[in-house]
């Protein structure tokens, strides 16, 4: 019940009437000068707001913060450039962005607290009085006049903002490849490459049962290579209706698809298998991340969920020893469609 | 718009899933007028004729085309020849069967048959054709770490890491807390409803022992502290963060700003 006490304390803090609240004022009388109240110009200077003394120390502090913001943002870009994809220390990136944003925040706080001339009004700003609104505009305008190095500060602010924006946009470079898309087509599969299980043992076609699913890998492929992963099932050949041009891809009704979901790149780890297909949903691969559902019988077309295209299919053949081998490369590109990055194996 | 429709569909499926738990035959169980004092294949045959044959067909042959069954339902059911003792033992002792409507997902339910009747039915169905017998798992012989590894790899996708169950498209996934070891072993081998079956070539009996041992530890997961939120994983944790933690932080900010304004 500690939580309840906390919530109660918070509500009390929020809605209690503080003792410091000024007593309610007597009913206001209409002001003789049309509600202008305290906003009467100084007869000597013609200003509404008295000029603030220049504050070089605060200005220097602001400049320092803005410089720190620029340095941190550049640091982000440097970290991003120095480390290789997949090995960038996220903590370092986060610290750089955080310091940069926090420094800009600090600079703005100091500007607001120490450099902008403030004027306390006893009444709320009237919204219906055009004259009073002009006063407000003047107050805002004159408030900036405490700053002595306006252009320098503006320049530093622009540099800090620009550096931070550039840093935030840097990761765009990881999208792609833009021009050379050949790496996207590369997979470890070619005609004759043997399919092995997680222990590196070849998968015998005779051991592939209906009603369950198997994971397969390209023999000798690097475990980082997402092109290697397969999901293998066996269906009744009479129920398989593949797109044209894929005849002979499924010896004995065994089908192999890329295990990487075409939506966000998760491993498809669910196989739903009807015990009694007459009344139960058809067999399907289901991605555990966002429930994209693919029908293995018709070339893994999407039947539900956010995936945008079917799973790439791998043509199969059975070798003289009765083991499964690839009969070619995938029918389409492997991997998520919105996410062009693929980790290529670091060592072959 | 499509995305919204999908979200609504999932939400609706979650709500609709709450109903069929009561989907047992409205007519109740038909029993022979004089039950013998002990389990017999003959009693099993009589019970089968009265309670199962409307969907599973005469002598377990199965019915794959709709035809009038019990009540106004269209009786359809898979053949029971060759399922052995394993499947009827699982389906009857979990209350999955008898099922009121063949279009509904069988789900853990009140067991309607007595122990003697279940034994009789199991013996009768097993006599219809050669098939697997009831397994005898021994979780104490399993390795907990191997079990966790295998469960994560093979089961957690649907049943969640802490075996709390969940959803796949088209079905509810039951939680596995306080499920008997034999039931788990049977389910792994049979693959009830949409679950894939895992033959011995994929999960050996000793691996199965390990998996069951891991599942048994999820009855009392060792929490690292804090609010476990049902041990359901990142989605409820995210919900708590968005709907409880962030509003609290915002309320805190409001409170602080109010106090500052007053001072």
Task: Please give a structural write-up.
The complex is a heterodimer of chains A (348) and B (263). Chain A has helices at 2-15, 56-82, 90-115, 130-143, 150-169, 182-185, and strands at residues 195-196, 213-218, 230-234, 254-258, 270-272, 284-286, 293-295, 301-304, 313-314, 316-318, 324-326. Chain A is of the alpha+beta class and 348 residues long. Chain A folds into 2 domains: 43-174, Up-down Bundle (Glutathione S-transferase Yfyf (Class Pi), Chain A, domain 2); 184-326, Rieske [2Fe-2S] iron-sulphur domain (Rieske Iron-sulfur Protein), CATH 2.102.10.10. In chain A, strands 1-2-3-4-9 form a 5-stranded antiparallel beta sheet, with no helix packed on it. A 4-stranded antiparallel beta sheet of chain A has the order 5-6-7-8, with no helix packed on it. A two-stranded antiparallel ribbon of chain A has the order 10-11. The longest helix of chain A is centred in the N-terminal third of the chain and has 27 residues, at 56-82. Mean pLDDT of chain A is 81; it is low at 18-38 and 339-348. In chain B, a hairpin with a 2-residue loop joins strand 1 and strand 2. In chain B, strands 1-2 form a two-stranded antiparallel ribbon. Chain B has 263 residues and is mainly alpha-helical. Chain B folds into 2 domains: 12-126, Cytochrome Bc1 Complex, Chain D, domain 2 (Orthogonal Bundle), CATH 1.10.760; 139-217, Cytochrome c-like domain (Cytochrome Bc1 Complex, Chain D, domain 2, Orthogonal Bundle). At the A-B interface, helix 1 and strand 5 of A face helix 1 and helix 10 of B.
